């Protein structure tokens, strides 16, 4: 029997490009369009996988790679610098059907850390590999290795010099309280995606460059399964962005999924409850959440979050501010 488009199984992909104190007055129309364009490209890349009958894990990878390859976001090419002047990258991915997961942290030569996280998940018995070991592992499986200079951008370097001078450790959106860079290039944090494929399987992934001026090999929530990333077909797929240490302490991604599975509450309510807990612990940020019935939520307790969604209709919808959440 042929399945009509109207009765086709639901497919859906959500993405985020970081949440924070995003000031609309300082975000020019040109810059907003640039961010929305990359978000749309990310959505369309993931959707192409889903539309062709591909799985949710591959869709998440495709979507995140677009953002990792763009200098606009704090992941991959757009990553911030550590105190020592290095771009130290983290990423994780999780398959909701099997609850298999993989992650890398503190890597400096892997072009697309989300691909390395996937390799850890599928080609090793481990969940998390770090630093040089993760890089050697990725190289051994043929992933693209680049010179660390590939990740250099002038704006990120200037951010580091400012943070060092002010003796601060800054998230991307903390930069909003500083004077605008000369070119108006305001960039924001962690990227992530969650997907539902036509087989009803969920997946989630997250990738980041961490904090500007971070020291001592600091790792945040993005590569920590249950904190920054979680997926379980019995509940939801989640990717987080925000105050990494607080998201770890709150087990934010797992916390959200557990509420849906055990308390049977909708994804949006679960996300809001988690963000309330984050706020009570002194943090902020956002969550994208998707269940196996295609119900979804894009929630944040900051002034903005770069976000987008796409479903069976193939229309990429993007936004930044709360008033954009009309889909």
What does this structure look like?
With 327 residues, the chain is of the alpha+beta class. It has a single domain (19-301), classed as Glutamine Phosphoribosylpyrophosphate, subunit 1, domain 1. The protein is 31% helix and 22% strand. The protein contains eight helices and twelve strands. It has an eight-stranded mixed β-sheet with strand order 4-3-2-6-5-1-11-12. The protein has a four-stranded antiparallel β-sheet with strand order 7-8-9-10. Helix 2 (56-68) runs antiparallel to helix 3 (113-123). The longest helix has 23 residues, at 29-51.
Defining key terms:
8-stranded mixed sheet, 22% strand, Glutamine Phosphoribosylpyrophosphate, subunit 1, domain 1, alpha+beta, 327 residues, 4-stranded antiparallel sheet
Listing every helix as H and every strand as E from the N terminus to the C terminus, the arrangement reads EHHEEHEHHEEEEHHHEEEE
Uncertain runs are: 173-188
Output the CATH homologous superfamily: (Glycosyl)asparaginase
- Number-wise, the strands total 12
CATH class: Alpha Beta
Please give the radius of gyration in angstroms. 18 Å
Number of helices: 8
Our measurement of the CA-to-CA distance between the termini, rounded to an integer number of angstroms, reads 32 Å
User: Which structural class is indicated by helix and strand composition?
Assistant: alpha+beta
Number of domains: 1
Chain-averaged pLDDT: 91
Task: Give a quick account of the main beta sheet: strands, pairing sense, barrel closure.
Answer: 8 strands, mixed
Overall shape: it is globular
Supply the CATH architecture: 4-Layer Sandwich
Beta content comes to 15-25%
Query: Helical percent range?
Result: 25-40%
CATH topology: Glutamine Phosphoribosylpyrophosphate, subunit 1, domain 1
* Strand order within the widest beta sheet: 4-3-2-6-5-1-11-12
């Amino acid at each position: 029997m042929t399945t009509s488009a109207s009765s086709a199984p639901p497919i859906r992909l959500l993405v985020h490009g970081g949440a924070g104190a995003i000031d609309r007055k300082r975000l020019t129309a040109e810059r907003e369009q640039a961010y929305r364009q990359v978000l749309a490209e990310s959505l369309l890349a993931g959707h192409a996988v889903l539309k062709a009958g591909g799985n949710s894990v591959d869709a998440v990878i495709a979507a995140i790679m677009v953002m990792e390859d763009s200098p606009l976001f704090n992941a991959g090419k757009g990553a911030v610098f550590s105190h020592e002047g290095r771009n130290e990258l983290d990423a994780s991915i999780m398959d909701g059907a099997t609850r298999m997961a993989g992650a890398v942290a503190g890597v400096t030569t892997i072009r697309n850390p989300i691909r390395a996280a996937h390799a850890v998940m599928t080609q090793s018995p481990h969940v998390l590999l770090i630093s040089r070991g993760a890089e050697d592992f990725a190289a051994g499986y043929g992933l693209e290795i680049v010179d660390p200079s590939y990740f250099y951008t002038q704006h990120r370097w200037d951010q580091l010099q400012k943070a060092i001078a002010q003796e601060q450790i800054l998230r991307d959106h903390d930069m909003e309280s500083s004077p605008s860079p000369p070119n108006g290039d305001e960039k924001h944090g962690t990227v992530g995606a969650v997907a539902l494929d036509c087989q009803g399987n969920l997946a989630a992934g997250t990738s980041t460059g961490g904090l500007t001026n971070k020291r001592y090999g600091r790792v945040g929530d993005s590569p920590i399964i249950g904190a920054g990333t979680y997926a379980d077909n019995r509940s939801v797929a989640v990717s987080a962005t925000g105050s990494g240490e607080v998201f770890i302490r709150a087990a934010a991604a797992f916390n959200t999924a557990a509420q849906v599975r055990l308390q049977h509450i909708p994804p949006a309510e679960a996300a809001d409850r988690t963000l309330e807990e984050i706020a009570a612990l002194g943090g902020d940020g956002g969550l994208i959440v998707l269940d196996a019935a295609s119900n979804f939520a894009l929630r944040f307790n900051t002034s903005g979050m770069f976000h987008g969604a796409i479903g069976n209709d193939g229309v990429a919808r993007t936004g930044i501010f709360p008033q954009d959440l009309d889909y």
